[in-house]
Design brief:
The structure is a single chain. By secondary structure, the chain is mostly helical. It has one domain (3-195): Rna Polymerase Sigma Factor, Chain: A (Orthogonal Bundle). The chain has 8 helices and no strands. The chain has helices at 3-14, 18-39, 46-60, 70-88, 120-138, 142-153, 158-165, 169-195. Helix 3 (46-60) packs across helix 4, helix 4 (70-88) packs across helix 7 and helix 6 crosses helix 8. The longest helix is centred in the last third of the chain and has 27 residues, at 169-195. The termini are far apart.
Length: 196
């Protein structure tokens, strides 16, 4: 959505226009869902958490002063809602002293479509690879998982991640570097097993 259109839409929402809010939800609901889908454990109800995100957005949209930061703010609300749910369930939330958390838009992970000309064993290996990749991303520590999803899957810039998570640019870069190191280490193990 273009910045001017988004600004007009948010102003309408802030004025209490429910139709405008419905349009805002429709425009950004996939972003919220994709992020939550990758963060939450599979047994949780993603739709329930997404609904909670939109309730919080509705209740606090008047506090948003800088419309240009809406996407980063939306990620912040989404990630914070996820962390709230973790705390409610008595799960440990790994937090460093220099961070609040957030996330960005995109279509999420789209695995390559399987070429219809692939052999059955190639299709099986491809599916196995996808499952393995999703699992190692899920197993990353929270602070690394969030930044790697935002950067590598959703395509956010370092600056957008910094704004969304309210952490310094240097912290973003170091977390992404550490996440990549961990992914490379785990992917190396996968390829060693495949060679056997």
């Amino acid at each position: 959505m273009k910045d001017q259109n988004l600004e007009n839409l948010i102003k309408l929402c802030q004025a209490g226009n429910r139709q405008a809010f419905a349009t805002l939800v429709k425009t950004y609901q996939q972003l919220v869902f994709n992020l939550l889908y990758r963060l939450v454990p599979r047994e949780w109800d993603v739709e329930d958490i997404a609904q909670e995100v939109w309730i919080k957005i509705y209740q606090s949209l008047n506090a948003l002063k800088n419309v240009a930061s809406f996407r980063s703010w939306l990620y912040r609300v989404t990630v914070n809602t996820y962390y709230d749910r973790m705390r409610q369930k008595g799960l440990k939330v790994e937090v460093s002293l220099d961070e609040p958390f957030e996330t960005e838009e995109g279509e999420g992970v789209r695995f390559p479509l399987v070429d219809q000309g692939m052999l059955p064993e190639e299709i099986l290996l491809e599916k196995e690879w996808q499952v393995y990749l999703e699992k190692i991303i899920q197993d990353l520590p929270e602070q690394y998982k969030i930044v790697i999803i935002m950067r590598e899957i959703d395509g956010l810039s370092y600056e957008e991640i910094s704004t969304a998570l309210d952490i310094s640019l240097g912290t973003v870069k170091s977390r992404i570097a550490r996440a990549r190191e961990k992914l490379i280490e785990d992917l190396s193990k996968y390829f060693q097993e495949v060679k056997r």
